[in-house]
Amino acid sequence: MGIVSKGAKCNVDGCDKEGARSLNTTKVENAGFRVVSVGKKTVLCKEHYKEWKKESKDDRDLERARFDKF
Ligand SMILES: [Zn+2]
Fold it and tell me: Residue 27, CB half-sphere, CA atoms under 13 Å: how many?
């Protein structure tokens, strides 16, 4: 939460919106985002966070589908 409250901008490449959430950089990159963040945390704006949630939800659904076969 720390960096977001300081008014950080979204770290997605080419995006200049106000940051809404900070996430683990690896998690964001795994969802297919190009980030310009250098730290372990990446700041996402509302829109990109929504997109990220959608991406990672798809992953979870796939995993659940695999487990459901047992
Ligand atoms: Zn953004």
Answer: 20
